[in-house]
Design a protein that fits this description.
This protein is of the alpha+beta class. Helix content is about 25%, strand content about 30%.
């Protein structure tokens, strides 16, 4: 299904003289749409996937505001992640927020959410647990079970999702276990 104004490279209509040719075109198009899979980047190391995520987060206009986004990963796959946003409103006032969490606590199956106004990657904690620590003005303001990573390029967003899925799958628990 094509969005209005989206160019598929195909004509809007096909005209053929024979009904059998029309049926063959319909069958070919049905086959192509069900069998086609977009090419996505593949990751073979934690640093490669996490660097891709870091490099591709940027400032995104959201409504009348702009949101600058930055993510940092500790060196180990069990380390903390800090997702920082700076929202600048139309008057130039800024609000900075940090979200701190462990990769191992994230739910796999990350979703891309698209509306007519914006698009974002929705990241959630396992079992909807509120493990994301939110800090604003150097004070803890609360805990959350989800966060949004805003995007303006759908294909790039899908590659960021595959990179996030890779780092989640290859993360290790960051909590030390003690035995007696």
């Amino acid at each position: 299904r094509m969005a209005r104004g989206e160019d598929s490279g195909l004509p809007d209509e096909f005209f053929v003289d024979e009904i059998d040719a029309a049926r063959n075109i319909i069958n070919a198009l049905n086959y192509l749409t069900t069998k086609a899979k977009p090419e996505r980047m593949e990751w073979n190391s934690f640093p490669m996937a996490s660097d891709f995520i870091k490099t591709n987060l940027k400032e995104i206009p959201v409504g009348s505001a702009k949101i600058a986004q930055e993510i940092t990963f500790e060196n180990a796959s069990s380390g903390k992640v800090v997702f920082r946003t700076i929202e600048t409103d139309s008057k130039g006032l800024q609000n900075e927020e940090m979200n701190i969490f462990y990769l191992n606590d994230l739910e796999s199956g990350i979703k891309l959410n698209v509306s007519s106004k914006n698009a974002y990657i929705g990241v959630e904690m396992k079992d909807k647990a509120k493990y994301i620590k939110q800090i604003s003005k150097e004070k803890t303001t609360g805990y959350s079970a989800s966060l949004k990573i805003f995007v303006d390029d759908i294909d790039l967003a899908r590659n960021i999702i595959t990179a996030l899925e890779y780092v989640i799958k290859n993360s290790t628990p960051g909590i030390a276990e003690f035995n007696s």
